[in-house]
Amino acid sequence: MSPVEVRNDLTGPQYQDAFHELFGNRGLRLADVCGYEVGDSARYAAIWAPAHGPHPSTYQWTAHAIPAGEYQGVFDARTAEGYRPVRLTPYSVAGATLIAAIWEKTPGPEWASRHDFNILNLQNHLRQVRTQGFRVADICFYSSLEPNPDHLGPPPAPIVRVSRFSSIWVKSDGRDWEVHGPLTGDGYQAEFDRQNGLGRWPVRVSGFNVAGGTDQKFVGLWEPARGLPGEAHHRIDAAGYQADTARLGGGGWRQLCIGAYSAGYRDAAAPRFNPIWERREAEPVIAKLAAAFMRDFEVPGLSVAVAKDGLLLHAAGYGLADKGAATPVTASSLFRIASLAKPITSAALMNLASQGRVALQDLVFGSSGHLGDLGTPADGRAEHITVRHLLEHACGGWASDSQDPMFSNPTLDQRQLISWVLANRPLDHDPGTAYAYSNFGYCVLGRVIEHVTGRTYADHVAQDLLAPCGVTDMSIAGDTLADRLPGEVVYYGLDGDDPYSMRVHRMDAHGGWVATATDVLRFAVRVDGFPAPPDVVPGEWITAMTTPSGLAGSDGYALGWAVAPDGTWSHTGYLPGTASVLARTKDGYCWVALANTGRKDTADPDRSTENGLTRLMWDVHDQVDVWPAGQAL
């Protein structure tokens, strides 16, 4: 079933009710909106689509009936607030021109728009767009009642209907595009057949009245076909549109555009539709999203694995594991997973706690602590640090910043490093009072596991946690290119970073594992709290692991997982040469994505590779409507 919601033939109050339900209460973004005339009154049709991350109300502004004379003021106000138009649909009702519009505060290329071009200027406008290095992103045609500009007699000039169009154009990203029309219905069909033969598909079809309203013309905006099954119709009546909606909407097809307009004016006005549909199957959609992500974030290679209700839906590699050898990434390629190690370490501790072998309130340092043999802390407050404090990043210091202890003293092993930090790095806050993300804290937890079990961290986790999940090939990374494992990708630094200059092996418990995306997924679906497959951590301890600390600035961080208000558990990871993301959603999905490069940009988080990976996987979640049959993990 398509995840979008489509409503049509709504009066103004009915549209407002639908908008409040879908946008306001359910958090769906408005993807398309059309106004049109039926019997001298306004009707509305709209598409709402899933929106993850911020609620749409924080980045999307919409209106469905702006008087044309007021639009410039709205345009100026929205632009000043940082919005950009993404849909602009003028229409006429009872002789008045109104505008429906969607604006978003989203990153994107340079743009411009106007709503009042005379249709006689169409070809000149298209030439200028191309000449200036832009492409048309949206175009809509309509008829407007205006004084006759050619009137030569005394005023007032007679009122005539003038065909006009709105346009949004953006800096070209290199994709092909064409605009053709105005065409008769039959002429448009012939153009459709021609464009389809050239490998193009309509992304917007605009219908509008000409002359007395007894005839309509059509204009299509065409782009290269996306390689997905599609259907596109024009000038269908309300009954035909409803039949199409029932037939396609129930079969995994997603409606992208409505293209609603009026055939005729005022009392004679009747609705017509130019809908465009697409069947979004997993492999081609993910491949295109992955290609765009790798292009935008300079990523050579990427591995993606997705599960639903504990079953594997998709596992594939994209791009290159080794650029020099032109070796492709596959589903079995190994990657450093960076901080995805933290949920693994946390789950291992939850199991030990469930067995009574460790308690979350246990002290870590000092004479009563698990690691008392590593020395007396110079800052006495450190003797009050508990296992829970470390899991929650609330130990009071040792943050992952420019002074991160894990990137200092490379000649020291983990225990030696901990002793050095205790002697030389005082805390910034009392334990349990402040959140500060700490790689070092999870390194300490790895040593707690070793103290409790009498085995190395890697051996215990591999045998007692990962093996019961069906994972047998995960291991701790090496540091240098010479340490690269069979099947492991090559890592590539950005902005001067060197992926092979770090003590990655020393990062075991906070960022040192090497794995396939599918193996990380095998772990995830067995600690996700869903019925199948059975979890390897007892339910009450999964609850404890995913209950946020509530500390200021923790943004929902629990014990090794970030927990969002919508019920998503997730973690991201970054190292020079590595970016990763792991997520479990409330609707039963788990996914993992791993990349063999990474950028951390604190000044512009949108450029950070791990944030790009997060957006990529939510796009996969929102845009794939048809998945293959699931397989047991």
TrEMBL record:
Key words of the record: Hydrolase
GO molecular function annotation: hydrolase activity
InterPro entries to which the protein is assigned, alphabetical: AmpC-like (IPR050491), Beta-lactam-related (IPR001466), Beta-lactam/transpept-like (IPR012338), PGH-like_rpt (IPR049511)
Keyword Hydrolase: yes
Domain Beta-lactamase-related: 287-607
Name recorded for this polypeptide: Serine hydrolase
Source organism per UniProt: Nocardiopsis mangrovi
